[in-house]
Design a protein that fits this description.
By secondary structure, this protein is mostly helical. The protein has 9 helices and 4 strands. It has one domain. The strands form 2 sheets. The protein has a two-stranded antiparallel sheet. Strands 3-4 form a two-stranded parallel sheet. It starts with 7 loop residues before the first helix and ends with a helix.
Length: about 220
């Protein structure tokens, strides 16, 4: 069923406003973005960007851009070490300040993402959503969203996805502004931000849903 925009803001204003604000942010933050890119190259190596496929609007796959936060350290057999062993203090700092997500501004301008919306999750999760949860892909995924300002990775998956559906059903300008400023406040205070997401997250959604089905 085709997603019906909630109102004039979602239908006509949200996308142009996202493009305008993201373009301004890239220009204003270009010195910071360049400095981070240089530091990532020096401290973590190349490539500077971490690129991963994620499902977007209508489950169309796109390439998500972030600054890399881990090294390519490998064991004696040539296998990558666990994430915790490859995450450096510099990488942790990028995650804790959310600076690693600045390249996603390019995703917003390209049309892959929005400033506010459900966060783009792993493609592996697609077969494990309920019919209701799949509606999170009726709109563009966001740099931040309702779930992120209500607990982020510290929330159980069912609650996180419920927040996503709640957002999709009623997208309003004032709601987006509220989420935007709540996100900024959380970044400044560094609340609900986990450098090691595995320490806060209850696990991978697909593995949890598989186990639930088996029981």
């Amino acid at each position: 069923m085709e997603h019906e925009p909630y109102g004039l803001y979602e239908k006509y204003v949200k996308r142009p406003l996202d493009c305008l604000l993201s373009s301004i942010a890239i220009i204003a933050l270009s010195p910071l973005i360049f400095m981070i890119a240089v530091l990532v190259r020096k401290k973590l190596g190349s490539p500077v960007l971490f690129v991963q496929e994620r499902p977007g609007r209508n489950e169309k796959i796109f390439k998500l851009y972030k600054f890399r936060t881990m090294t390519d350290a490998k064991d004696d057999n040539g296998n990558l070490l666990p994430d915790t062993a490859r995450l450096t203090p510099f990488g942790k700092a990028l995650r804790m300040t959310s600076l690693d997500e600045l390249p996603e501004l390019l995703n917003i301008i390209k049309g892959d993402m929005a400033i506010i919306g459900p966060r783009p999750l792993l493609t592996e999760y697609l077969p494990y959503y309920t019919e209701a949860e799949r509606h999170r892909h009726d709109v563009r995924p966001g740099l931040s969203g309702l779930a992120q300002v209500n607990g982020r990775n510290f929330l159980p998956w069912d609650q996180r996805l419920a927040y996503d559906i709640q957002y999709v059903e009623k997208i309003k300008f004032l709601s987006d502004m509220k989420i935007f400023f709540q996100t900024a406040l959380k970044v400044i205070k560094r609340t609900d931000v986990a450098a090691d997401t595995a320490a806060a997250d209850e696990g991978y959604l697909n593995k949890i849903r598989i186990k639930r089905r088996e029981n």
